[in-house]
Structure formats: C-alpha cells, structure tokens
Design brief:
Blueprint: H1 2-21, H2 42-55, H3 64-70, H4 96-108, H5 112-124, H6 142-154, H7 169-175, H8 203-213, H9 237-251, E1 257-259, E2 262-263, H10 265-277, H11 281-294, H12 296-299, H13 303-315, H14 322-328, H15 334-370
Antiparallel strand pairs: 1-2
Helix pairs in contact: 1-15, 2-4, 2-13, 4-5, 4-6, 5-6, 6-8, 8-9, 8-10, 10-11, 10-13, 11-13, 13-14
Length: about 375
C-alpha cells in the first residue's frame, strides 16, 4: 500500500512538472513568417518572404514552403489564410492576389504542380475584358491583373494565350492606362471609372501595371545596363507608365506619399522593381537609395515589407543582405528548429519512461499484496 501511494504521489508530481514545463500554445503556425495575426495576410506575407529568400539564394525555414502549399484549396485557388487546412475552402473567400503571389512563390521553390493548379484557377476566373479583380466576378483592377500576369509567367503559361472573349491580360492593362494628351497621360488607374468620371492616376496601379506589361512578376533581376526612360507617352504602354513614375518620383523627392509627410514605402518599393523590369536601372537605383535610407521603421519585423526591401535591392543589384538576415530571423533556421524539436522529444521520452517505471511499480506492488 505504501508503495502504491508513493508511486501515485510521484506520478502526480511529474504530471504537474510536465504541464509547467510544456511550451505555451502557439499563437500562429510554427512555419509562418511573422508574429502578427495572419487572418488577412498569411498567404501574402509567406509568399513574399519565400520569393525574397529565393532571390537571395537563402534556404527558407523548415516547413515554410510546405505550409504555403498546404494553404491551397482543392480547386487550385488560395484564400488569404486558412486556420484549418483540413476544412474545405469557401469559394467566396478565395482571391486572385493571394493565389497570384502564392503561385509565384511555389514555382520559385520547385512546387510546379501546385503552381500550375493555381495558374489554372486564375485562368478560370479571368474577367471578360481579359483582366482580374481581387475577388472573382468583380471589376477589373490593375493591381490584381498585375499579380495574375506574374503568376502565369511563373507557371510557364503564355500570358497572351490566356484570353476571354478574345481579350488578353495586356488588353485589360492598356484599357486602364490614361491616354497621352490627358493630365497624367501614361499613368494607370486602379479601375475604370463608372459613368462619365475621369480616370485618376494611381501610383501603385501604375507600378504594378508597368511590371506586368514588361511580363514580370515580383522577382526582377537587375538589368545589365541602364535604359533611360523615354519622353512622356512615347514607346510602349510600359514605357509611358515608367516615364510617369520617374516624373512623379522626381517631383515627390524620390518617393511616393500616402498623405502629407507620410511616405508610401510599399508603393515606392513597387516602383523600384517596376523600373528595373523596364531596364531603367539608374532611376530604379535612385529610388532604392531613398527607400533603403528611410525604411527602417516600416520594415521592422514585417515579413512582407522586409521582402519588398530585399527584392528592391535585388532588382538594383545592391549587395546588402540586411533585409534577408532580418527576414530569416523571424523564423528559426532549419537546423535550430530540428534541434529544438529533438530536445522536446527527448524530454517527453524521458518523462514517458519515468511514468512507465512508476506504473510498473504500482502493478508489482499490487501483485505482491494479492500473494
């Protein structure tokens, strides 16, 4: 009887110790970059991080690519975030932006089948004018169309061949460009205005449209030499858009703003990549230099922002690795994660052995009593 009580007491003490020593429940998936709530940007920030790491030839954290692939819906599309990937997707929650950037990231990391399924989903939800809206069935916008074009290219699809009613993605982009001779000619508007409203130039829409018109995605390699932007409204749609970006950046002190004395770092980073995609290396570098010198607060511990900064550096052939180093630190490296996992396993294995010994003692004590 005494042995039984001793074993029971020891088992209770060990259980309390194990509970106290066990890690707190995770507040986010272990393989997801960043600590903020992923509800609205989980797939977006993970994809951006994976693209930047690929461009920098840096291995992602263990499980990061698998986590992204596991977010894909059965029909090939992606929602912003699936808390439980075992639950079937709500088709209304899928969007072209999450799908488009995920396709690019998966293709970059060799997940060709998943990338092709995502590209096929995008082709199925293309609008009649050849473009895409954020959610299928909405009004075409330049940003979503730009993301989709990059995804199709990454998946090995001929973008011009993806048409609806004979309209291609490039047709959709041209329809969103403000014509020459008008105010802000060459810029792109986010969406075509309804009624008799005049189209309004949009810096982000222009950057995304220029990048897409050049047939590029989020990862753009620095051009070998500079090609100065053409004068306003000369050349292709991409040339005219790039010329507008350069004029606006020059007038705005080298960056775009979201309000009085409020730099728009994300759009400025988009402009760097767009200008590099068009071969305008010097203009891209001028903008990147401003961005790199002022973006500390914006990019701090933000996976998507750090990725944008890293991809802007890549597009201008800047050797800095600071954004990649900081991005990688947002998740432990593969080896450290494996060692941590092994340590936890060893702890629980030892504990399980102790419990087994105590239980065996209880059984033996009971057997001796009956004898």
């Amino acid at each position: 009887m005494l042995l039984r009580r001793t074993a029971a007491a020891a088992l209770a003490a060990f259980s309390a110790l194990a509970i106290a020593a066990s890690p707190a429940p995770a507040t986010r998936p272990a393989a997801l970059y960043g600590t903020a709530d992923p509800t609205y940007d989980g797939v977006w920030r993970q994809s951006y991080a994976l693209l930047a790491l690929h461009a920098a030839d840096t291995p992602p954290a263990e499980g990061a690519v698998a986590w992204l692939a596991g977010q894909q819906c059965a029909d090939g599309g992606f929602a912003s975030y699936r808390a439980d990937p075992t639950v079937p997707c709500d088709a209304g929650a899928e969007d072209t932006n999450a799908t488009g950037i995920a396709v690019q990231a998966l293709a970059a990391h060799g997940e060709d089948f998943a990338a092709k399924r995502g590209a096929d989903w995008l082709a199925k939800v293309q609008n009649p004018d050849g473009g895409w809206s954020y959610n299928p069935g909405g009004t075409t916008d330049a940003d979503s169309t730009g993301v989709a074009v990059g995804a199709l290219k990454a998946a090995g699809t001929d973008v011009k061949s993806v048409t609806t009613d004979g309209m291609s993605p490039y047709d959709a982009l041209r329809s969103l460009q403000i014509p020459c001779g008008h105010q802000d000619g060459g810029a792109f508007t986010h969406q075509r205005p309804g009624g008799a409203g005049a189209p309004a130039a949009n810096a982000k829409a222009t950057a995304d449209a220029v990048r897409a018109a050049e047939g590029a995605g989020f990862v753009v390699e620095a051009p070998a030499q500079d090609m100065p932007p053409r004068p306003a409204c000369e050349g292709s749609a991409a040339d005219a858009g790039a010329a507008w970006l350069v004029r606006q950046l020059g007038a705005g002190g080298g960056y775009f703003s979201s309000g009085p004395q409020a730099p728009d770092f994300g759009t400025t980073a988009d402009a760097v990549v767009a200008l590099a995609a068009g071969g305008h290396l010097d203009a891209a570098r001028d903008t990147y230099n401003w961005l790199a010198g002022h973006a500390e607060g914006w990019s701090q511990d933000n996976p998507a922002a750090l990725a944008q900064l890293a991809l802007a550096a890549y597009a201008t052939d800047n050797p800095t690795r600071d954004p990649i180093t900081r991005l990688s630190a947002l998740l432990p490296p593969p080896r450290q994660r494996a060692e941590s996992s092994g340590g936890d396993s060893a702890w629980w294995l030892a504990g399980a052995g102790l419990v087994a010994v105590l239980c065996l003692g209880v059984l033996l004590a009971g057997r001796k009593t009956r004898i």
